[in-house]
């Protein structure tokens, strides 16, 4: 059985939970006390020297880190990851886009506003994330005006990875109403078999 | 033939060039005028709406973006990407580590110091990157104290991706002397068949 060390309200951890549910893999969830500083303690750093959730333990005791790499591992040879070389690489392209051009703005703004109780207006740290975050949302919206899903017109781990923080972007001060194709896609993801909502 | 739209002095673009050389794939290189603003013009945004280099055009005219996704594409079914599920996923884990925990600090500090001519000392923007960048280097060094390469004790695209900005980290104000295992690994990468140095 898989064992996940994660935080239920974290989008990066939710990606892993959603994939596990949709692939029908049994797993245990161990909730990590992120706000209490657990990811910086010695025991946790032995699990992941980079001090980040999620971490997955495989049935043989091996460990894997980085949410999107865990998605790759879980989805390998499943319908959630296309086999054709270009489609497969385009899934990877969206996963790297998510970690470089989306998550650092949208997830971190959400963390400050939702979990640290910071305001958006007049908060330079959060406001500086709105421009790049909206560029990421606009890019997705333009793509989804012409596609049902991000890659290959089918539901893949690219959709799981991007859904995670996009659907809670309003919690970080982002307005999704200028992105109608994005909103339709969010509902399309929610309608997938085995979908489970994010907790918290 | 592949066609790369890139910048020779960019580590993200160098990754692609190094992989193409080591895999023996013929390619054309089109140098993009990054400092002249080309990545923000309409023609370039039609190539990559995210306005970033590198972009690769495949022999059939399809395009792919995100340096690490291009590495995945090029290395698929080659010795540079292990097939075993866990090793394969560990390569992915390092690629995401590179884009989230390494490149945003080490590459951007280098860009400011080397290409924008900014100083390190007394420069808050650059100095703020030294802490997280050094944490990434220390994590790699600790791993490489016990391993010859990042994954599976063999040279993979994980090594290509991490070599790109690590070996030029001193250009961004990073001192590599506290990381002896990292320096040995850099030389091990340089000794690989087909290795080509970064230009510029």
Brief account:
With 200 residues, chain A is α+β, with helices and mostly antiparallel strands.
Word description of this protein:
The structure is a homodimer of 200-residue chains. In chain A, helix 1 (11-23) runs parallel beside helix 3, helix 4 (85-115) runs antiparallel to helix 5 and helix 5 packs across helix 7. Chain A is an alpha+beta fold and 200 residues long. The first copy, chain A, has a four-stranded mixed beta sheet with strand order 2-1-3-4, covered by helices on one side. The first copy, chain A, folds into two domains: 2-75, Glutaredoxin (3-Layer(aba) Sandwich); 85-190, Up-down Bundle (Glutathione S-transferase Yfyf (Class Pi), Chain A, domain 2), CATH 1.20.1050. In chain A, 50% of the residues lie in helices and 8% in strands. The relative contact order of chain A is 0.15. The first copy, chain A, contains seven helices and four strands; from the N terminus they run βαβαββααααα.
Name the poorly predicted regions of chain A: none
Over all CA atoms, what is the radius of gyration of chain A?
17 Å
Q: State the CATH class of the largest domain in chain A.
A: Mainly Alpha
Q: Helix and strand succession of chain A?
A: EHEHEEHHHHH
CATH T-level fold name of the largest domain in chain A: Glutathione S-transferase Yfyf (Class Pi), Chain A, domain 2
**Overall 3D shape of chain A:** globular
Major sheet details of chain A: 4 strands, mixed
Count of discrete structural domains of chain A: 2
Mean pLDDT of chain A: 97
Order of neighbouring strands in the sheet with most strands of chain A: 2-1-3-4
Query: Can you count the helices of chain A?
Result: 7
Q: Biggest interface between protein chains, with counts per chain?
A: A-B, 32 and 32 residues
Distance between the termini of chain A: 25 Å
| Record field, number of beta strands of chain A | 4
Strand pairing plus helix content of chain A: what structural class?
Answer: alpha+beta
The oligomerization state is homodimer
Proportion of β residues of chain A? 5-15%
- The CATH architecture category of the largest domain in chain A equals Up-down Bundle
